[in-house]
Every structure is written in structure tokens, then in C-alpha cells.
Amino acid sequence: MNDMSATTDLAIAMRGVTKIFGKDPQTALALLRAGKSKSEVQAETNHVVGLDDVSLDIARGQIFVVMGLSGSGKSTLVRHVNRLIEPTAGEIIVNGTDVLGMSLDQLRTYRRTQVAMVFQKFGLLPHRSVIDNVAYGLEVRGVAKKERLHEAGKWIEIVGLSGYENSQPRQLSGGQQQRVGLARALAMDTDIVLMDEAFSALDPLIRSGMQDQLIQLQKSLNKTILFITHDFDEALKIGDRVAVLKDGAVQQEGRPEDIVLRPATEHIEEFVRDVNKARAIRVRSIMECGATEPCDLSVPTDARCEDVLPLFAEHEWVGVVDEHGTQIGRITAKQVIRALARHTPAAAA
Ligand SMILES: Nc1ncnc2c1ncn2[C@@H]1O[C@H](COP(=O)(O)OP(=O)(O)O)[C@@H](O)[C@H]1O
Ligand SMILES: [Mg+2]
């Protein structure tokens, strides 16, 4: 399973990636490998375990979410992908290439052409206009002015900021600034976009709109998006797959419905417990109506999410029938998961 040939079809493969912060990481690494916990390693050596033996397969063309509480290692993980951080041990293979084997020149090209990053605090250049911010990455890449402004203008329109081309970042709201950051990353036209808590600073309503837009954009652009969040609802809503991180280690990885149905640890169960409050939502309020392929498995319109959720262990969708048993639509795993995420108190706040 861990051979290189299996990784070339993936956008990103991490293999046994461990990161220890401190002067003598090897001593701490030995303790970690001997079974000591992050806090024990820290107490004994004053070294911090950033990541602990992380292996992930991130397939192309999906939104892959890494979710975890503050300090769980999310930023450390994502920064390994563009090698802003070097691991203490392990491999990182992106688009079939070993990132750690790249020369400085190759790394520079790699960052400009293969992985773009969106930051939590926007990271905009304060004295440049919106369009010059969006065009910045292309400028660095040496794209001629006319072409880069044309490209930037296109992305500004896509993220809904037409008319703001010549504004300064400080004249924009937080949500608008985040859109500039997103447009700048998309303008790089990389296959992979890394987003580290990109929406965490936004108000709930604006945040929800940005989530919807990201899902739409991913569908139309078919990029691989590695999305970092501390918010379980956000992870369920936008993730095709979700990995949950604690103390630098992956506790569980799977489809959102797998995680909600079968939380692997007590820590994850705690997150799922909040989602459970929304399990009373009826199928009729979230189903897709209309003709669908017939399905041998169906549920009535007044079934609750609680009743249909277990069916998604085996099926991507099931039929919905009226009181006469006639199929009138269908309901998908994604619809149920998104309804659960949307209706939790934290998301509704
Ligand atoms: N440069 C660093 N030096 C020492 N410890 C660090 C450094 N960067 C992160 N850490 C530690 O590594 C762990 C993971 O941090 P981080 O990846 O920033 O978590 P998250 O993004 O999930 O909040 C934390 O315990 C943090 O204190
Ligand atoms: Mg972080």
C-alpha cells in the first residue's frame, strides 16, 4: 500500500510524516516511537510534537478537510505540503513528485505552479489594489501585465467582486478581503489549493456563503482543495473526505458520513454528539424531488435523518416514497450530512 507507484495517481500523499519542534528532534522522536504521548515527550524533552506519524492519501479533484482543535497540528500539516516546514521523518509526495527531493529552484517553481495557498488572515498586500493583489502571483511568475490583469479580472468576477478592482484592501469587509485571497490563489491556476482556516475569521452568514461558493467552485474547476478547519460542521459540510487530527496524529479519516456514523475515538464522538441534535430533521425538508433512477431502497418523506443516516454506510443515495409507496425523489448522503452540519447550534449562531 505504501509503495511509490500507488502515490502517483494521488494529488497529495503523506507517508509517516512526523514533525518535532526543538533543537534535538531525534531524541524526542525516539521517545515518541517508543510510545510516549505528545505531553510526555514535551515534559521529558521540552520538544513539541507537531505531527505524529501522519499518513494521508488525498485523491485529485476533491475537497479534503483536515479538522482539529487549536494546536492539534493542522497548520503544521498543511505547511509540509508546500514545504514551508520540513518533516523530522516521513515522505510527502505531490503529483507524483517527492517534495523533499526538490532543489531550491524546483521548490520555487513548484510553489508558483502547483500549490497555491489561502491564509486565514487574508495575507493581502495593503498598498496594492484588489486587482494587483489578485495578479500578484502571476506577476511573480513573470506573466506580462496585460495578460495578468485580464486573468485577475476574470477571477475577481468569479468570486463576486466586480467593481472593486481598484479598491484598497482596507476599504473592503472581512468577507470581501477573504474573496480577494481566494481569487489570488485561484488565479495561480494550480491543481492544488491549500486553505488554512481560510473562513474562520468570517461572520457565520458570510462564512456559510463562502462555503457554498467553494463547493460550487470546486465542482466547476475540479481542483484538489486541502481545507483546514477547527469547525466540525464546516468539515462535514464541505469535505468529500475528512481527517480528524489530535495531538498531531490522525484519529480517523473517511467520508463525513462514516465519521458521523462510526466515530473512531471518544474525542470524535464528542464532536458528533452536537451533530446528533439535528438528527430529527425530516427527509422531506432536504430531499431532491423529481424523477430519479429507481432504487430498491427507499424511505418515507417523514423519515428522520437519524433513520436514513445508517443506510449511507452502503449507499450513496436512497429513494424517497410518498404515502402510496410511489418514488417521488431521492436523498443523498451529502444532503443529510450538510443538513446535520447546518442545523447544529454552533453553525446557526
Ligand atoms: N515553530 C514552532 N515551534 C514550536 N512549536 C510549534 C511551532 N509551530 C507549531 N508548534 C506547536 O505545534 C503544535 C501544532 O501547532 P499548529 O500546527 O499551529 O496547530 P493548529 O494549526 O492545529 O492550531 C502546537 O502544539 C504548537 O504549539
Ligand atoms: Mg493553525
Task: Provide key terms for this protein.
349 residues, alpha/beta, Rossmann fold, CBS domain Like, four-stranded antiparallel β-sheet, 14 strands, 39% helix, globular, binds adenosine-5'-diphosphate, binds magnesium ion
Describe the structure in brief:
With 349 residues, this protein is an alpha/beta fold. Among the domains are: 58-88 and 96-114 and 190-275, P-loop containing nucleotide triphosphate hydrolases (Rossmann fold); 277-348, CBS domain Like (Alpha-Beta Complex), CATH 3.90.1280.
Task: Tell me what you see in this structure.
With 349 residues, the protein is α/β, with parallel strands linked by helices. Among the domains are: 58-88 and 96-114 and 190-275, Rossmann fold, CATH 3.40.50; 277-348, CBS domain Like (Alpha-Beta Complex), CATH 3.90.1280.20. It is 39% helix and 23% strand. The strands form three sheets. It has a six-stranded mixed β-sheet with strand order 6-7-8-3-9-10, sandwiched between helices. Strands 2-1-4-5 form a four-stranded antiparallel β-sheet, sandwiched between helices. Strands 11-14-13-12 form a four-stranded mixed β-sheet. Helix 9 packs antiparallel against helix 13 (333-343). It is globular and about 65 Å long. The mean pLDDT is 91. The site of magnesium ion (MG) has 3 residues, from helix 3.
